[in-house]
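Sequence design from tokenized structure. All designs in this work follow the same two-part layout: the structure record, then the generated sequence. An example of the structure record is given first.
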């Protein structure tokens, strides 16, 4: 009877621990794949946009002729990489806005090249909006990463609690077993 209770307890806590460890593993993977990688892509996009912005504002036609198409392709590739991650609802809205703003930026760049850089004000405004959207996406990465981290901490706390309860229960059962084994009633 005691052996069956001990076995059931160990099995139950093992299943709970397994679920908690799976949640912790999923959290770690999510923080890396869906938060850190996206944050890095956002940083890369910001750098690319900065290169384009400096080239257009300084009217560096040689740099633009050599690099603008590749930079634009990099931005579009980065957008696809972000889209392939596990996005939360709020993030999807900002990504859609970013995609639209980048399309406007690229269109504005083509107009600037065709008009020999005659109207830079609209371009500056669009760049500002693109950068604001990138900042919002970066903030989402931090907030969501923190939320996932806190969730994994709760799972770790749960594992520790069940482990301690299991140890106390096993100690109690060992004491009971010792009493049963060594107790000799006076007859």
């Amino acid at each position: 009877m005691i052996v069956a209770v001990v076995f059931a307890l160990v099995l139950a806590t093992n299943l709970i621990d397994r679920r908690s460890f799976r949640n912790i593993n999923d959290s770690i993977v999510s923080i890396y794949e869906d938060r850190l990688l996206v944050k890095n892509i956002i940083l890369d996009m910001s750098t690319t946009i900065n290169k384009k912005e400096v080239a257009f504002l300084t009217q560096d036609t040689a740099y633009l002729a050599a690099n603008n198409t590749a930079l634009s392709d990099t931005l579009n590739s980065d957008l696809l990489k972000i889209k392939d991650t596990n996005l939360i609802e709020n993030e999807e809205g900002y990504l859609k806005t970013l995609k639209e703003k980048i399309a406007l930026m690229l269109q504005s760049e083509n107009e600037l090249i065709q008009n020999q850089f005659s109207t830079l004000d609209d371009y500056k405004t669009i760049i500002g909006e693109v950068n604001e959207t990138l900042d919002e996406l970066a903030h989402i990465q931090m907030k969501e990463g923190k939320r996932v981290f806190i969730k994994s901490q709760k799972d770790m706390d749960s594992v520790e609690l069940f482990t301690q309860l299991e140890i106390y229960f096993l100690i109690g059962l060992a004491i009971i077993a010792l009493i049963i084994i060594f107790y000799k009633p006076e007859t």
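The chain has four helices and no strands. We note this feature because it recurs in several other targets discussed in the main text.
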